[in-house]
Amino acid sequence: MIIDNIISIQGFANDSNYYVIDKEVLVDTGTGMNTEYLYSKLRENGIEPEDIKLIVNTHCHFDHIGGNKDFPNAKVAIGKMDAQGIKDANNPNNFSSAFGFKIKRDDVDIELEEGDKIKSFEVLHTPGHSSGGICLWDGKNLISGDTVFAQGGIGRMDLGGSYEDMKKSVDRLRKLDVVNMFPGHGPIVEGDGKAHIDASYRNFF
Question: Strands 18-21 and 75-79: what pairing?
Fold first, then answer.
């Protein structure tokens, strides 16, 4: 599915969803265990793997970063606090190592901070699911990672996250006029994203 400049690819098995912005920025790469599936979906949309210039990881959990290795020509960007979780095996955010996914220090090229720009999107630091989790927002479309999901869901908070941080992040997101929402797992929301985020806040906080 294509909405505005975002190509949506449903995650396969344990993979996160994948999103492509302007045919060259890939948001999240899954576990890396279903490479041919992702490649085939990219090609269905006229994109070769080598066309991907930048990977943006919404957070450092293994089901979102494991496929980074499958795009060796792309730079990797991730929230600054979660970058530490990838680089340092002893960091409490580093659940990638726990699941057998070894990400080397050199595999993080850009540490993203609040307000940075990715194409037409602004980086929002939205901790809660992880300490350095981010969302991407362009004034209409929200790529929400594992912060909020369709039907009033939120990400778990027991893998380096925080209930208080999540509450603040969801409260912040529900104040945005979100039209379309692109979560890290499950269905996308087309047309009434704000209502789904409002439901997330009511359901959990």
Answer: unpaired
